[in-house]
Amino acid sequence: MTGSIRIKWCLGALVLGFVGLAAAFLGDLWGHPPAHQQIALVDKSFLEQTPWRRTYADMVRAKEDMSDFDCYGCHDQKKPPPLRFDKNSILIVPEEHKDIVMGHGSHNRNNLCYNCHNESNLLTFQVRDGRELKFADSSQLCGSCHGPNYRDWEAGAHGRINGYWNTSLGAARKLDCANCHNPHNPHIPTRKPAPGPHALRTPVYEYQASRAPNP
Amino acid sequence: MTPSASTPPPAPPPGHDPDRRSFLRSSAAFAGLTALAASLSPLRELGDYTSTEQFLQKYYKEMTPEDMKKVLRRITNEVERQYGIRPHVRDLRPMDGVEFVYALNLTRCIGCRKCVHACVAENNQSRSPEIQYIRVLKMPHGSMDVDKGNHTYDDKDVPDPGYFYMPIQCQQCKNPPCVKVCPVNATWQEKDGITVIDYDWCIGCRYCEAACPYWARRFNFTKPEIPKDRLNPEMSYLGNRPRKQGVMEKCHFCIQRTRAGRYPACLEVCPVGARKFGNILDPESEISYILRTKRIFIQLKEEMGTSPRFFYYFDK
Amino acid sequence: MITAARNYLVFLRRSARIAFVGDWRYYAWMGVLTAITLLGLNAYAKQLVHGLVVTGMSDEVSWGVYIANFTFLVGVAAAAVMMVIPVYIYDNEELHDLVIFGELLAVAAIIMCLLFVTVDLGRPDRFWHLIPGLGQLNFPRSMLSWDVIVLNGYLLLNVHICGYLLYCRYQDRKPAKWFYIPFVFTAIIWAVSIHTVTAFLYVGLGGRPFWNASIVGPRFLASAFTAGPAIIILALQIIRHVTHYRITDKALLTLRSIVQVSMIINVFLLVCEVFKEFYSGTTHSESARYLFLGLEGHHALVPWIWTAIGFNLIAMTILVLPVSRGLKYLNVACVLSIVGIWIEKGMGLVIPGFIPTPLGAIVDYVPSLNETLVCLGIWAFGLLCYTIFLRMSVPILQGRLSQANEGQPEIQGDEPDTPASFATPAPH
User: Does A31 contact C23 at a Cβ distance shorter than 8 Å?
Assistant: First the structure.
């Protein structure tokens, strides 16, 4: 093949090649973006800001039915309700209050109703120094034993404040102890966490697991 | 050196057909141009990639109030067109005498990740691909080395004994490496300590993402996807307005809330009150109290010299 | 004034026209390169529409082959000009014209660098934000702003030098020394700066301990001066073969000594790096561990880096032995060096910097098909540019394309039976 014929074939091949390439481009045959990741939207319960417990004060503010707190509807004004213990000296919660699960303090140290409740006046609490507190002031009762946490709570460092940090622009609402802690069983309950992160590149390897041995 | 003009050109050898050749040459060139045009065919779907207005938009710090009004109007219309909801977009300025600082109580955090999702909801982050400003690390007792953290824990019950949980987000450093490296000043630190991003100025080079020692910055690899019914219409220019493909974003301390005097979304949802936020220049704020009274508080990767405005502390 | 402008335009027109003329090998080569370029352009169009999600990058590994190729090519561009030193400082007449080939390679390499950076941007429509005065160039704090300035300045320097020297040769007049010698010396110093600035892009990031090391700058320069002249050695032989332009072996051997010394330094610096990372055993060496040994079951880069090290060691051995004075062995050493250093600068530098992330996560990076096509397209475009530059400059240097033979039938380079077109007298 002489050189000039080679050139013609070459140019001819180029023409065909470019036309083929143009067709391939228009056909959009490759290079598509990766498949859209179907990630479930998070359950709205994880976005809830309302405190998981409502205090006596909350219920009063919301003008709710307070008949549950009418102790003397069942109890006798002149007779303090007796406490009963089993053979291991563990408090027996009466049938009428079976919704109360005691768990205040380790080794059942604080599972004694009258450490907080006032046997002479069930509508109040009693503090070690002899004071009586209304139900709405329950946080002071917690603070009478839990000093450091109470001081932190007063300063805003313990617990949660919702609303405005700049109170000149709006209201701040500091949650009370009982908004987070069940007074009879104050330990914050465990829960299922919200879903973890979904990385862009799938399949993706596991993020490296914790390397330290379990203590 | 140069060929003499008098000698005639040599006789063409057989098969030499200049006309056919130049026709083929032009055909090849034409076919090449066709292929060139066809190669650009995907650009038909470019759609609302940009507009003249957006292309010419000024830098945030050089905008007059009139410019900003026009821009906010444009953003409002764009969001309404895309999501069917008319948002309220503002440009909130920093308050005087305010420097924001964040503190996180590692004794309290239970690793429930509610903060992660509250942030996503408040700040209109893309759901797919997923962008989350906060990453919670499950750390073993006894170490602050983030390399030991587990990002994808899926415990049945949190907290898992023997571990603590450390949420990490933008630390709003006093000496931010991301601000230093941005070639176009699209990210800078404001008076109240928040490091912000002008989403309409960012060129998407991702140098800031490489520079951040806390992996706090996120990039929009494609068009972000926000479900219409989960859009937060209370927006701000430097904060939670929907971003576009190809720009960076990160935690901005919920600037649309905090500059209006409110707490950030992550703090308001935390079930155990592990998050604390406020104005460090106010001695009465809880954040000042914490930094004054807690004995142990640390900054992550302190040796980086970034001086974060984010402190981790322990009660016990 | 008008005649000067007219002459210049004629020069440009003739140079441009000659780029479309050649023999069948030329058409085949240019055709293939054009096709690959178009494949890359098409892939980039898809990237513009869908975003960088079509690449393999993620928030964890946010830079990939685009920046890896950019880094490698800045080195090539820097080194291409460094071979200017023996010519002007040692007054080596043999290499005079080859300087232009080196500088043209630098121009092509810089064009490729600028393209690689552009395709990596998330919002390339906002490029004007980088223009000082018009936009907001964060100079001098951001190393990327330095890079923008030095790369564009370097491009202009080399375009000026090559353009001026070629135009003077075209007009058959001696170039005025003051109009190019100062620029040449500036270019020599500038060449070092472009690669140092690119190194400092990485070194300045305190949050990435793999990069935040003083050895990165010297290693960049050592590897650049290995790979750059190696590419030129290969390119000169191709030019010699295709155009019969006179290039002596002596020129190639001068370049060989540059490659030899640089490779020895490169390997020594590698040893320094490996010792520092592994002897003290701090957690800062996690990225190095990932690269050389694998980490927590992730070994993707381990075969690559050991192949690169193997290639570099074999190349260094060949280069040190006198057998590399023979072109066959020299070429093997050059190819091994280029591939080894490309792997080192790309997979061996950019990717491990991101793994593990600053928070300890490991996410592997694999370039996607689209990303690869864009890279190939840019490489093809760069080769296309360089071929066109050579196609224009060789006839000028040989005197076949000059102002004196304006108006005569254009040389038909695609006439295969006229070896007279190619047999060239020695350049003056």
Answer: no
Count: domains in chain A:
2
Quick one: how far is CA A77 from the chain centroid?
40
**Does A180 sit within 8 Å of B39, measured CB to CB?**
no
B59 min Cα distance to partner chain A (Å): 30
Closest to A158 (Cα-Cα) out of A172, A141, A146, A144: A146
Residue A191 falls inside a structural domain: no
Instruction: Give C-chain residues touching B13 at CB under 8 angstroms.
Output: 417
Task: Tell whether the model's pLDDT for residue A203 goes beyond 70.
Answer: no
Mutation for B interface: A11, A28, A38, A169, most B CBs within 10 A = A11
CB contact under 8 A, B209 and C59: yes
Residue type, C208: R
CA distance A144 to A142: 5
CA distance A99 to A88: 22
pLDDT for residue A209: 43
pLDDT given at position C281: 84
Same-domain status, A66 and A129:
yes
Residues of B in contact with C403 (CB under 8 A): none
Which chain B residue has the Cα nearest residue A154? B286
Task: State the best of C39, C62, C284 to mutate against chain B, taking most chain B CBs within 10 Å.
Answer: C62
> Which residues in chain A touch residue C359, judged by CB atoms under 8 angstroms apart?
none
Sign of the dihedral through C-alpha B71, B72, B75, B80 = negative
How many Å apart are CA C243 and CA C250, to the nearest integer?
18
Q: How far apart are CA C100 and CA B206, in angstroms?
A: 36
Question: Are C363 and A9 inside 8 Å of each other by CB?
Answer: no
**Shortest Cα distance from B261 to chain C (angstroms)?**
32
Chain B positions in Cβ-Cβ contact with residue C38 (cut-off 8 Å): 32, 35-36, 39
What is the spatial distance between Cα C220 and Cα C71, in angstroms, rounded to a whole number?
Answer: 9
Return residues 231-290 of B near C (CB < 8 Å): 244-248
In a domain, A204, yes or no: no
Interface test with A, best of C34, C42, C368 (most A CBs within 10 A): C42
What are the average pLDDT values for consecutive 10-residue runs of chain C, which has 428 residues? 89 89 90 96 96 95 96 93 71 70 94 97 96 94 96 95 91 88 89 94 96 95 94 92 86 90 96 94 91 90 96 97 93 97 93 94 92 97 96 89 76 43 41
Distance (Å, whole) CA A164 – CA B87: 22
Phi, psi of B170 (to 5 degrees): -55, 130
The dihedrals phi and psi of A49, each to the nearest 5 degrees, come to -100, -20
Name the residue range of residue A17's domain. Answer: 1-29
* Contact across the interface for B271 and A188, Cβ inside 8 Å: yes
pLDDT tens-digit profile of B19-32?
Answer: 777 888 888 889 99
The structural domains of chain B, ordered by start, are 113-259 (3.30.70.20)
Tokens of C256: 């060989």
CB atoms A208 and C417 under 8 Å: no
In order, the DSSP letters of A105-171 are SGGGTT--GGGTB-SS-TTEEE-TTS-EEEGGGHHHHHHHH-HHHHHHHHHTSSS-EEEBSSTTTS-
Q: Which residues of A touch C43 (CB under 8 A)?
A: 31
The DSSP secondary structure of C237-281, one letter per residue, reads HHHHHHH-----HHHHHHHHHHHHHHHHHHHHHHHHHHHHHHHS-
Cβ-contact C266, C222 below 8 angstroms: yes
**Entry pTM:** 0.92
Nearest Cα neighbor of B203 from C136, C296, C13 is: C136
CATH of C25-421, one of 3.30.300.20, 3.40.50.720, 1.20.1630.10, 3.30.565.10: 1.20.1630.10
